[in-house]
Structures are given as structure tokens and as C-alpha cells.
Amino acid sequence: MYQSFFIKTYGCQMNEYDSEKLNDLLEFNGYKASNNIEESDIAILNTCHIREKASEKLYSDLGRLSKFKENKKKIGKKMHIIVTGCVAQAEGEEILKRNKSVDYIFGPQSFHKLPKILKNFDNNKVYNDFLCEDKFSSLIPSRSKEVSKLVTIQEGCDKFCSFCVVPYTRGAEFSRSVENIYAETTALVKNGAKEITLLGQNVSSYESSVFECGVKKKIKLGDLCQILSDIQGLARIRYLTSHPIDIDENLLNQHQINTKLMPFLHLPIQSGSDRILKKMNRKHNRSFYLNLIEKIKKLNKDMAFSSDFIVGYPGETDEDFQESLEVIEKVRFASSYSFKYSPRPGTPSSLKNNLIDTDVVDTRLKKMQSILNKYQREFNLTFIDKTVEVLFSGKGKKHNQYVGRTPHLQPVHVFSSRDIEGKLLKVKLESLTSYSFHGKLSA
Ligand code: 5AD
Ligand code: SF4
């Protein structure tokens, strides 16, 4: 009988992508996906290391899982516990020391080895080489029929922001080949995908090459968007995440002319204070960021923005924090994420001792989030009574209800007696709940 497996995914969309790929690889090798981690023969935890809270979740889940493993053993059954993802990369041996029931550890660029290792029962328990090329060439075509799909085009980061573990957990920047990305996207579109999100820790630094009439041509993210937009049946392209200093003319030009490229850009700033940005090693200052936003808006008036903010970076004063709020007031982000600073082992900022008092951080974060929410609502309210194109990706909770997204990623619910899953349709937005719209299909 085939063994069953369950993958629990923590963290970002890069991990979601990896989990789906691992799922496909295991099914291809004869394993069966289970609905329940406790009953599975192979329990896989695909972990996140970005902030302390995320990585501590692993250890509490491992505690629970090891009890299941012991109980199974008592009735003569086996359970394999596998840890993959960024905690596996960063804390490989440490995980084995903290929890003896873990069988194997695979870094995010080694998970493709899992099916082989499970068959051969290797003595080695930790696999954490940086093997991007090997990983991508081992993946198999997806059979998913989902409307909106993720496609990893780049992995790793060379920016070394002082607070961030990514350069250590995902390694140096690696860009997947254009042929590989094109083949994956074409296959997804054949299966019914209408929208793809090009993923990477730093997609804006994507760089590969193709041969045109025997001449080697450099391909940047803008070129890639252009190439992929020729795929018939693909309606929407998005990309995530970018660094402001890498947004080049080529990409900006695409936002001006490529109607398949959605007018929404996630552009993390992290702080609005030049002093803190410098300490963070962000390589841009506040005016560079604000000028870039203005430039993009001039090129395409429909563009809207989201960002990431870190609150309470070591040494952040009230004035520094105020400057972050000023950036929010100026840009009026359509949505944004804000996080409490979390010192991560091995990063330069974790060695700093001028930590901000937790009460101060909590108060600042609350304030920032209420301002971000205010602008998100303001942005959304400008769409009431407007008619926009919505890509429907699935059913809602109610009878005959469908859910989709606008070009600016806003969720929309409508009622329809015919099946509209996978359709791109015009919808009049009538009302707004907290973060999503209710609308009516236009005749
Ligand atoms: N503490 C808090 N937030 C962090 N991020 C990355 N590292 C840390 C950290 N040490 C946030 C950044 C990044 C997002 C993915 O996570 O804002 O853009
Ligand atoms: Fe981390 Fe992004 Fe900075 Fe790279 S650019 S180090 S992924 S925050």
C-alpha cells in the first residue's frame, strides 16, 4: 500500500509554491496526499524563519507530532517526520537536537531529494546545500486546474538588509531560465490558469538570457513579462516581491504598455526614516522611494501600491517612526503589511543592543496599522459604483456565490446562477465590507 503524506506550510508564497511542487513530486512517486497530518505516514513541515514567532511554531508543532509518532509506534505503525523550508536551512542540526523524533531535514533547495531518500533510507539526516538549479530541473509539471497560480522565477537574495535572514536561508540570487518559466506557465494556462504571479525574494533583480538569431540577449523582469504576455489564454501577470533600487526602465515601460501586467506593485520600504534605512542597509532613502512612486504613477495613472514596514528597529526614535507615518500619508497605500522588528540569529541587526521597549513597539504598531487600514478603506471606497474586471477563481460560502479579484487584488463577491469560475467579467462594485466588495455582474 502507498504511504500517505501531509504537508503543513508556514510563511510566504515562496513556501506555498515549494509545498505544491513537493506535493506533485510525492504523488508522482506513488505517495498519497492525506487530509490529516496526525494520520499521515509522512508528516512534512515546510517552515518559515523570517520572524521569531514564525520559527517557534515549528517547535510547538513538533512537540505535538512526536507524541503522535510515539502512539503510532505502540500500535506497530511508523510515522516519518520531515522538516523543510527556511528553519530547516538555518537550524538543521539544532532541530535534531531539540526534537529527537525528526527523521530528515531538507533546506528549501533540497526538498526535491525527499522521494529518493524515503525509498533508500539514507543515514544522512540533514540536506541543506544551495542547489537551485538542481531543484528547478527536478520539478514535474503541475496538474492543478486553479485559475490563479504562482510561478517561482527567482530565489535567494544578495541585498543583505541588516534584519533579514533570507540571504542566509535561501542563499545567493538565482534566476530560473526563461525556457523553464515559459514551459511551466504554458502548461498552467493549458490547465486553465488565467493569472500568474511571478515569485521570488527579489524578482526585480531577475536576470537570465536567451539566444536570438545566435546572439545572446539579456532578459530582465520587464522582458520576461513581455515574453509571457504572448501566451494565449493568459490574462493577467503579477510579480512579487521587488526591491526599489532594482525597478528599471524596462519594467516601468511594461507597466505603461503591457495590458496583461496588473497595475499593482508591492514595493517594501521598511522604514520612512533615512537614518533607519541606512542602518537597515536598504540602499535607498526615503526620497528615492517617493520619487519612484511618483514616476510610476505618472507612467500609469491606475497604478496602486502596497508595502512592508518594520516597526521598532533597534534605535528607532519617535521621530523615525513619525517619518514612516509620513510616507504612509504621502503614498496612501492600497494595502500594506507592518511587522514588529524581530531579531534573527545570524543577522547583523541581531547584534545591536539598543532594542526598543516592547510597549513602545506595540503602541507604534497599533498606530501604524490603524493608519494603513484607514488608507486601505479610502482607496477601496473610490471604487464604489465603478465597473471593473474581476477574475473569478472560486465559489463563495453562500449558494450561487463566486469570489474573484480586481486588477488591484481586491476581493469581490457576486451571485450568479451560471458557473463563472475562471471567467474574467465586468462587475459593478456596489458595497464594501471590511476588506472585500459585493458587486453585480454587468449585463
Ligand atoms: N523582523 C521583522 N520583520 C521582518 N521582515 C523581514 N525580516 C524581519 C525581521 N527580522 C519583514 C520585512 C520583509 C517581510 C517579508 O518581512 O518587512 O519585507
Ligand atoms: Fe531580505 Fe528583501 Fe532585504 Fe533581500 S531585499 S535581504 S529578501 S528584506
> What is the count of helical runs?
13
The main sheet comes to:
6 strands, parallel
Gross morphology: globular
Bound molecules: 5'-deoxyadenosine, iron/sulfur cluster
**What fraction, in percent, of the residue positions are helical?**
25-40%
Q: Give the mean pLDDT.
A: 95
The CATH homologous superfamily of the largest domain is called: Methylthiotransferase, N-terminal domain
Tell me the number of strands: 21
**Rg, nearest Å:** 23 Å
CATH hierarchy class name of the largest domain: Alpha Beta
CATH topology of the largest domain: Rossmann fold
The secondary-structure class comes to alpha/beta
Strands across the major sheet, in which order?
2-1-3-4-5-6
Count of distinct structural domains: 4
Give the distance, in angstroms, between the N- and C-terminal Cα atoms.
53 Å
Write the CATH architecture name of the largest domain. Answer: 3-Layer(aba) Sandwich
Strand content: 15-25%
